[in-house]
Structure formats: C-alpha cells, structure tokens
Fold each of these.
Amino acid sequence: MAGPIVLILIFVLVIYVAMAVRIIQQHELGLSERFGRYRLTLEPGFNMIVPFIDKVQKVDMREQVVDVPPQEVITKDNVVVTVDAIVYYQATDPVKLKYNVVNFIIAATKLAQTNLRNVIGDMDLDAALTSREVINTELRAILDEATDVWGTRVVRVEIQRIDPPDDVTEAMHRQMKAERDRRAAVTAAEGEKRAAILTAEGVKQSQILNAEGKAQAIKEVADADAYEKEIVAEGEGRAIERVFGAIHAGNPTPDLIAIEYLKALVGIANGEATKIFLPLEATGILSSIGAIGELFTDSKDE
C-alpha cells in the first residue's frame, strides 16, 4: 500500500510545483493577486506563486495600436468630412492599466473620436486638409494627458485620411485646375516678357557697340590724317632748313637769300609747303625781300 501512496504524493507534488511556477516573458510584467487583492508585480523570468491562492495576470508592455474607426466630423465652416486615425500607445504602469480602466482599447477609441471631433471642429476645411501634422500633435497631447491615469503613454497619433463630400471634392479639383491654368498663363506671360526684354536689351547693346565702333573708326581716321599732316609738315620744315643751311654754307648775298625765300613763299601759296622757318637774321632778309618786291611792282607798272 505504501508504494502507490508515495507515487500519488509525488505526482501531486509535481503538479503543485508546476502550478507554482510562472514564466514571465521579456516584454511582459505579471500582476500577482492573492484572494483577489493585488500583491506584487512579477518581473520577466522565473517566478513562484502559491497555487490556488495566487493568481497572475500578464500585461504586455510593448507599443500597441488602436485603430480609430472612420467617423463624420463637421468643420468650422460647416462641411462634413469623414476622418479616421491611428493611435499608438505603450503601457507605463501595469497596475493602473489593469485596475483603473475596464477596457483600455474601447476607452481610448472613444476618447480619440471625441477629441478628434473637437480638434477638427475648430478648423476650416482648408486648414484641416493642410494641417494634419498640427492635428496629430494636438490630439496626441490631449490623449496623452487623459490616458496618464490609465498607466499608458500615447506615443503618436496619425490621421489616415480626411475625406470631404464628393461635391466639395469635385469643386476643389476644379479650383486647383483653374489655379494651375492661371499659374501656367502667368508663367508663359512672364517668359514672353523676359524674352522681349532680353531681345530689346540685345538690340540696344548691339546699336551701342556699332555706334562706339563707328566713333572709334572716325577718331582713328582723324588721328591718322592729323598725324600724316604733321609728318608732312615736319618733313617740309626739315627740307627748308636743309636748303637754308645749304644757301648759307655758300656765303650768299642778301639778294639771293631773298629770292630763295620768295620761292618758298610761292610754294606755300601753291600749297606745296605748309611751314617756313626764318633764321635769326630775318630782319635784314625781310628788308631785302621788300626792296625786291618794290622793284617787281615798278617793272609791272612800266
């Protein structure tokens, strides 16, 4: 008789020990209750409890998602839009999450829907459609504050879509098309205006360059003519000086000098010379020239 009883006791002991062991996963925390009263929080790993007396409830501490169903919301300018969102939350206090709210998912969903109506209800349609980031931030702050007593933290809120009525959507499409057409027309007009301005500036610059080129050419021609005349005059002057030197080298009489000067004057009158250089004794020579001139005049009179 002793053998079967021992086997039964061993079996019961094994069952008891197996029921006393609780393995908590890394992403979980365990709430141990004794006779329905919270006793302690079990950490991840191996834990022992008292079977039939203690009860363990596991709480997932990972980030989770609440899908807010689509709902109709009236904007500030009385347009009905359909909005749905996603709320990401994470448990921070398993005790509050388990004992302060009956069903967190339902509570968070209703809270998100209510505050979503409040936030979008304070905006015009255009602002609601273009301010999703503002809506996300404001709604997350409201939900995070409200769910703090439930032992959770709202990580972020994402608005999935905001759908206006079909007639409003069609009107918006027409408006956007008209705006795009207007911008295209303005861009084309500005391009044509810019092209005309550039063309006019090009023509103007070309005319200026042509005028400057002509003026430069005229100036260069005038400078060349002046230089030519100056060179010719200098050459004639040097020739006269050489003639004068040659005449004086032969010890000429004043009458001969006067005749040579008269020849030079005749050349000047005919345009053959433009300059004449007088020596220092020009006074006596001019007197001789005057006397010879009087002789020529008298002979003509006779």
Amino acid sequence: MESNFQRFPKLWLRFVTAAVGLPIVVAAVWWGGAPLLLLLALLAAAGIGEFDGLARGWGFRPLTVLEGAGVALFLILAHARMESWLFPGMAALVMTILLAHLLHGRRLEAVADAAMTLLGVLYIGFLLSFLLWIRSLPQGRFYTLLVLAAVWSTDAVAYFVGLTLGRHPLSPHISPRKSWEGAIAGLAGGVGGAALLGRLLGLPVSISMALGGSCSVAGQLGDLVESALKRSAGVKDSGGLLPGHGGVLDRFDALFFAAPVGYIILVILGAR
C-alpha cells in the first residue's frame, strides 16, 4: 500500500518548508511594523527576480532596478499609511519607467518592455502592499491572520482533495492538475479555516466568513494567473527558493490576489 509520501509528490518537502516558514510569517504579522515590512520586502525582491525570469522567457527586458524602486515605493507608502501619496507616487512611477525605457536603447520594443516593468511593479509590489494596508486597520493584526488562514486553508484542502478526488479539470489549458472538486473543497476549507480562527480571535462570524470566502476565491484565481504566466514562459516553477513549493510566486501567488480583495471586503464592511 502506498504511503502518503508516495501518493502526494514532495509532501515532506512542502511540510518542512511550511513548518519553518509559517511561524516566521505569523510572527511578522503579529509584530507588524518593521519586521513585517522587511519580510514583505524580501519576498518582493525574490518575486521580482522570478517575474523577470519569466518576462525574459517571453522576450521582454524589464528594468529590475526600476521594479525594485517601484515595489519599495508601494511598500513604504503602505507601511507609513500615506494614502494621499499613492496617486502622485504612481504617476511618477509610470513616467519614470516610460522615460527610462525610451532612453535605454531598444526603441522598437521600449513600450512593451516598459509595460512589462510596470506590470512587475503592480503585480508584486502594489498587490502585496495590501497586506500592510490590512495590518494598519483597527484589529488589523487579526484580519491579516484571517486572510492568511483563508489562503493557506484553501491551498491545503484543494491540494489534497484535488489529488485524491479530482476528476473534472478546472482549467485544462492553464493548469491541468487543478480540478473543480479541489476548488470547491478549497473554498469550503478557506471559509472554515477563517471562521475557526475568527472565532478563536473573537471576531464577528460575518466578517470571518466574508473574508474567508472572498479571499479563497481570489486566491484560487491568483493561483490560476500565475500558472498561466508560467505556462506561457514554458516553465514548471517560477523558481526554486522554497523546497517542495517552487519559488516565491508559486507559494504566494494566491496572496497577491487575496490581500487586495480582503482589504476591499473589510472597507465595505466598515472595518476602517
């Protein structure tokens, strides 16, 4: 009879990596401030490197230095809660990227390269910065943990149910291994995980379930988007930094979509 480690590929590597990384992420969220900013900056730096690797596979040449500066801008603005600077900062970023690429040399491809540079900044820096915006809310520590719980519960349940019971492909052209069975079970897992943690933290059930459901759906869509990026670049993983998981984009792709959606839900529910 097959052991669980034979049935589930790289299960032990995924478990060890999660066992090491999860306490670090939770501790950074709990403390907030500089520790969380530093953690997100490190993840974003690794993510930019992986994104640029994919972009070069598509034939683009993004400017990594400008991407790093743009990511730093969004993270610092969120950390300092400088909402009024978001639009001026974004305008300055767009103008700088366009000018830099137009003066960089490859004039025929300059606009496409500039668009790819901007996409890298928005996809990684802007979307990830919403974790800091959530953390800055009243009870933001708890809400951020709820978003993480929803994403992680969704991922774990969808992974195991998909491998054992998955029969109907969710999106065969993008990610053949994902199934509707796994996605639906993942949604249930995300809602259940957030509701359970919300109860332990003393948060309203309505907010916990709303966050759990919306972040679960958003996270699964984010996972599909990253799968599409990898497929178009012809690679299996975005990187190899996290054993058993692949790269930072492979592990945190769901969070890039779940964080802004979670923030929107909290604003709608009056958590600001």
Amino acid sequence: MVKIRLRKTGKLNAPSFRIVVADVRSPRDGAHLEVIGFYNPRLGTEKVDLARVDHWIGVGAQPTGTVVDIVRRARTGETVQGKKAEYKAKQAAEGKKD
C-alpha cells in the first residue's frame, strides 16, 4: 500500500517536513516515490501540489491525518501560524521591539 505522509528534514530543534508519497514498508525518512510538497511548522509555511495529491489519492494512496489537515488548509486557503509568527504577533501587540 502507498501512503502520503511527512518526511522529517531540518535540524535539531528546528524540524521541517516534506510531504512524500511512499510505500508503507519504507522507514519514515527512507525511500519515497515522489515529493509533492513541504511543511514548516515553525514558520507556518506550507506548499502542496494539489494536482499530484489528487492523482495519488485517485490511484489508491492513503494520506495520514496530518497530511489531510495540510491539504484541507491548502484547498481552503487557510493559513497556519508557526510558533515564531505567533511570538512576533504577540510582541507587536504588546508594542515591544524584536
């Protein structure tokens, strides 16, 4: 079976993820069939190729729960704020400089 899931990249305490299509038997950061997007939770950035997601779901790939949420946000145009963006917004609201 094929899954659409996250592959961890980045460095210690600063993770970022690639959205990949992979066989369920391969390890989390192992071999994959295709990279179809990325997600950085710290900065709140996401990019997903929705056409490729639709293709892979059409041929039977199963997305994980987190990927379903990311794809939903990409389709509706919602944004996600990372911790850094939340911190900066809080500082700006309090009138403090960075």
Amino acid sequence: MMRNWILPEYISDILPNEARHLERLRRNMLDLFTCYGYEQVIPPLVEYVESLFTQEDSALDLKTFKLVDELTGRQMGLRADITPQVARIDAHILNRQGVTRLCYAGSVVNTRPDGLLSSREPRQIGAEIYGCAELAADVEIIELMRASLALAGLVEPRLEIGHIGLFHALADAASLNGSAREALFVALQQKDMPELEMAVAGLSPALQQGFLALPNCYGGEEALQLARKSLPVLPTIVAALDTLDALNAVLKLRGIETRYDLAELRSSYYHTGLVFAVYAPGFANAVARGGRYDSVGEKFGRSRPATGFSLDLRELSHLPYPARHQGVLAPSENDPSLIDKVRALRAGGEMVIVDLGIAPDEASCDRKLVKVDGSWQIVALV
C-alpha cells in the first residue's frame, strides 16, 4: 500500500493498524514511566533555534528545519530532539533543587533520515533524570529502557554500552579542536580504520595507540580489560573506565547481560559520559539510545547532572501488530432502549459500531445487537 502519496521523501501517513499499535505503546510506556515516578511534560513543536541546540552541536543543527517567525522576525526551528527542550524546562520553568524525573512523548522532525528505513518524523518517547550524578540514575534509566522495550514485545535485546568521555579525554590530550577533532570523531563513529590512521598521524605514539585501540575494545568484560591495557593512563580515562567497571558489576547483579563498544559515539554532541544503545534481531538500527549529558542545561544557565534515554515508536512498528479488539455492530435506529444499551456498553469499555453501511469484512465486529423478546441482546455475528 502506498503510504507517502504526494508526501515528501521519508515522510508517510500512519494508517489505522499502525496508529492503534503506536498509540497503545505510547500509553503503556507513559504509564510505565509513571510507575517509576516520572512526570510528563509536553514541550512545543517549534521554538527559537537558540533553545533547540548549542552552536557546537553541528549534528543537531543540520537535522533541524528552520523558519522565520512572522511575528518577531527571529529564526525558529522545528524540534529535531526533545531532550534540549526538557533541559530548558528543568533549568528555568520547574527550577527544582532536588532530583527531577521527567518524561515526554511527541513527534520530532528531521531534515534528513537517520537511515534508509527511518522516517524524518520520528515519534519520540523518552525519560530523563536531572540532578543526580550517581551511577544509580544511569542504572535506573537502563532498566526503564529495557522495560519499555519489553512492553513492545521485543525479544533478545542486546545492550551495548560505551563512554564518550574516553574520546574526549584522548582528543583533549592531543589538543585537537575544530575540524581535526570532528574528523577523528567521525572516523571513530564509522570505525573507518584507514581514515582513523590518517587522522592520528603525527600524534604521540601513546595517543595514536589509544585512538586506534578504541574500535577493538568491543565485547564483554574483556573489552574493559583491553582498554585498561591499551589506553594511556590519564585521570579522565581512568575515571571513565572505573565508571564502566562499576556499572558492569551492578548490571551483573541485576542479571542484565551487557556488551561494551568503546568506540560507540553514535549520539548527539551533548552527551558527556556513559552512552548506551539497544539492538535487536530484525532491526537495522538501534531501537533505543541513551546516555549521560551533564552539561545540557548549561546554555540555559543551570548545568545539572542528567541522564536519560529515548526511542522512536515508529521504529517499533515493524513488530507484529496485536489483533484489533472485536466490537459489537448496532443497527442505526432511534429506539430509546437501543440508545441506552449502546451507551451502557460503551461506558463499560465495549466498542460499539453503528451500522451506517459498513461492509461486513471491514466492520471489525464479531457480535451484533438484536432485539429479542422486546430487549436488545448481544449475539454472535454470523
């Protein structure tokens, strides 16, 4: 079925079966977040660009549609990510002193898709913790991310964890900035070893070895052990590896199997520490991503520790849709007793469809209302 008739590339309608499935997932996930103590916020779809990304975040800048506000003449943007908006709300609207748990669900719009099978209008849902620098916050977010995917019926999820601080520590030690730092970041992100070797040429042997080792630090606990042996002993690197070791121990206690990818840099520029992603069979891209972004609120004048995750509900639409609940077909009559019966059934949660000429195979009903001995009864639809 053609889903993007007269629509732009990578933009499509959401038709009834998928819409029903996505809305059910959204409701269930938001209910799950509530059980963990998260409060929902609903930021606007459009706002001034300076609130949507920092000048340093070139990746998010490129993904953001811009337009001119006819009222003020200022440049506005359609949000490409909801996290900066939630950080603004935490920093200046709520302005709480203690730990704040916030969640959200809404559409974002991207100038370009993340992949060939991705939409430019993801249905983003996520949860974030502000005001806690402890590892316990990251553990809670990881557990909540996995529980959210379980609601969607995802089987055999694979959790991969990295630490973007390792790259920044090496780049800072090499005094890399601007385009040189960006080129190295992209080479590591793509695990392009020939490009990476060219990018690190001219650095000290210890830093060359560190950068070239990161793509090989992949796997189970042995990846962390290899990193200890291969990376230079810098305070920020030691601290990052200590965090990964501590997280590994906690996740093992909780029975969560984990893989490590220390060249995992597929995140927005605002991430500062731990980064994680979940992959699953049948999905070309990660089905959920998250991490720590302790400085995301700095641009709003209030930098607080923060960690969170998000996912695109439309990515999960590849999973089989649950069967639609079958309803009751009611005749189109103005019988007061029929009207009362239909209202009572709907109040009890039953789907009642009034027959206005529905084709039998499109009615989504397995029962019907018929009048038996003066009262309306539900019988099987044959």
